[in-house]
Design brief:
Elements (H helix, E strand, L loop, with lengths): L1 H5 L15 H29 L25 H15 L5 H27 L7 H24 L23 H19 L5 H21 L1 H6 L11 H19 L8 H18 L6 H4 L1 H20 L9 H7 L4 H21 L5
């Protein structure tokens, strides 16, 4: 919005020429998201406490989590606001990529909101049924896949699949792209949701992944950088950098209130929307397979649940003390802050490893 209002003035006032630069607008979006979080965060916490919108702890969870019951939840509303508003303020809204990212994020956020709302109404940690939640997620993801597929037919997007380390391996997914996009978005959103179990764990890891994809988006949109790194150059994709910057700022701002001991939980409205946002960015910049490395912590958390369920179903034995993985380390005696910091370190290691693959092709 500000881009459309102020940049045209650069012909009369040279100062407004700064709005031309995506780096300036990305930094501005990041700071705007931080400001929104800091200004509205305390107010939201007070309102949630006033209406007694607190977290319900699942009965089969770690005993140490009983003390967290009643902590204000649905803080993902703050995250969504801090992502959407700065993006609308600073991005070039004629970019279809920006609207796809915003639409996907908000759609998954609404699913999470419905889940959180039902938990509050029922006063227990059961919201939407797993089947209903999955159907809604798949429906939203299919819509995103169909939109991107139609953009490919117009030549503004590519449904090729890039493989890290193999610059000449670029299979065309064609009609397989839609189910592939569905699996990626549903998997990413649920993986972040599973990681959201300790104070600051999920949002800190999302922050690392969002920062990484913001860098990757800028590189993909830059003709010289993308050519040098053998990436698919997508014109105007760098407007998505502003969306990524907003996510970084929103994550930093929310971490202020969510760090140990948490004053506010994100709820499913936050975790599902953030997972979808990261997955959509990976789809848009053609780094779908790299998402598994950038979000390595999310992958480990999701795999721990899959392995635990499969092992117990077929052999009656548990591989971990409790799944997801962070609960296993809790029951092994690690303190909550130690688990969080060590998982963040792992997240940074995965992010750095993913960036090294750009030239190892």
């Amino acid at each position: 919005m500000l881009y459309h209002l102020l940049y045209p003035l650069h012909t009369e006032y040279s100062f407004f020429n700064v709005f031309r630069y995506v780096t300036f607008r990305t930094a501005s979006a990041t700071l705007s998201a931080l400001a929104i979080s800091f200004v509205f965060g305390p107010w939201l916490i007070r309102r949630l406490r006033q209406f007694q919108i607190g977290q319900h702890i699942r009965q089969d969870g770690p005993e140490a989590h009983r003390s967290k019951a009643g902590t204000p939840t649905m803080g993902g509303v703050l995250i969504l606001t801090a992502i959407v508003l700065p993006t609308l303020l600073w991005a070039d809204l004629s970019s279809a990529f920006v609207w796809v990212a915003l639409g996907s994020t908000v759609a998954f956020g609404l699913i999470g909101f419905a889940d959180d709302y039902l938990k509050l109404i029922r006063k227990r940690s059961l919201g939407l049924s797993p089947r209903a939640k999955l159907v809604l997620q798949c429906g939203c993801a299919v819509v995103v896949g169909l939109i991107l597929s139609s953009m490919s037919s117009r030549g503004v997007y590519s449904t090729e699949l890039l493989f890290p380390f193999f610059k000449d391996l670029r299979p065309e997914l064609s009609w397989w792209f839609v189910p592939f996009a569905m699996l990626l978005l549903v998997g990413a959103s649920n993986a972040v949701n599973l990681t959201d179990g300790l104070d600051g764990l999920a949002i800190g890891t999302v922050l690392i992944a969002a920062a990484t994809f913001t860098v990757l988006t800028y590189v993909t949109g830059h003709a010289q950088f993308s050519s040098y790194l053998d990436l698919i150059h997508i014109p105007r994709i760098w407007e998505l950098t502003i969306f990524g910057g907003s996510m970084v700022g929103a994550s930093l701002g929310f971490l202020w209130f969510n760090c140990y001991p948490a004053q506010l939980f994100m709820g499913d409205v936050g975790s599902l929307s953030l997972g979808s946002a990261i997955g959509t960015m990976a789809l848009l910049i053609k780094q779908e397979l790299l998402l598994a490395l950038v979000g390595g912590v999310f992958v480990l958390e999701a795999l721990s649940v899959i392995v635990q369920v499969a092992s117990f179903k077929f052999s009656g034995r548990r591989v971990f003390r409790m799944a997801p993985l962070h609960h296993h380390f809790e029951l092994a005696g690690w303190s909550e802050p130690k688990i969080i910091i060590r998982f963040w370190i792992l997240g940074i290691m995965f992010a750095l490893a993913s960036l090294t693959t750009l030239k190892l092709r």
